[in-house]
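Practice problem 4.
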């Protein structure tokens, strides 16, 4: 019965987290509901984001605790971006995405800032497809995932590659800026998505959301493997 407003990608991205734990290999950031979050989001919660680094493997883990007395509805996701080395004559177009498992995936068209859910389609992602600025002229590529997935950023001109592994993320976004150009690419695991074109603005009706009972804890995350050995 009340309207709340927040910016693109939600409020946590702009919030001040505290460091709850830290050592040489991991760090835990904590965000707790407060007067500022309550202006945008009507639930009491604790959000922990844990980064763990083991050799060339980085894990990002989300822990959401419902500290409210009512069911909590939320979406969360990552927005990692990766530099594409362009030395030794390489360009952005020399890189490509590779999906594992090698199979077709459901693509959800984006009519920014909304998703066109009714026109989602099966897209061939069983082979590599080239990264370019023009690939993102209609904004992000959004896929619905049905099983564990690994998305790699690769080039045939060096051993440089990055693997983003998602065990159970229901969605992933691939993005780079357009029309401005930058030598980076984003692979974004999501447990929640933007509003669809037919959205009625009611949070309990929003697609892709997570629902947890009072005192319940929800956990998920993804890993990133870096390989940077030149040929």
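Answer key:
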């Amino acid at each position: 019965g009340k309207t709340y407003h927040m910016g693109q990608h939600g409020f946590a991205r702009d919030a001040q987290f505290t460091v709850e734990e830290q050592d040489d290999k991991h760090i835990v950031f904590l965000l707790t509901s407060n007067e500022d979050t309550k202006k945008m989001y009507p639930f009491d919660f604790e959000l922990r984001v844990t980064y763990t680094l083991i050799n060339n493997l980085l894990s990002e883990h989300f822990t959401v605790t419902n500290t409210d007395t009512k069911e909590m509805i939320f979406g969360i996701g990552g927005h990692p971006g990766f530099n594409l080395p362009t030395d030794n004559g390489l360009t952005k177009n020399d890189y490509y995405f590779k999906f594992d498992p090698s199979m077709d995936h459901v693509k959800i068209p984006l009519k920014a800032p909304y998703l066109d859910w009714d026109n989602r389609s099966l897209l061939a992602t069983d082979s590599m497809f080239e990264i370019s600025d023009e690939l993102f002229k209609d904004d992000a590529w959004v896929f619905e995932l049905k099983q564990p997935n690994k998305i790699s950023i690769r080039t045939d001109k060096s051993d440089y590659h990055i693997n983003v592994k998602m065990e159970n993320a229901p969605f992933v976004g691939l993005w780079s800026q357009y029309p401005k150009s930058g030598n980076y690419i984003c692979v974004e695991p999501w447990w929640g998505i933007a509003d669809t074109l037919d959205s009625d603005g009611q949070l309990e009706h929003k697609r892709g959301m997570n629902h947890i009972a009072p005192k319940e804890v929800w956990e998920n995350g993804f890993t990133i493997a870096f390989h940077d050995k030149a040929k």
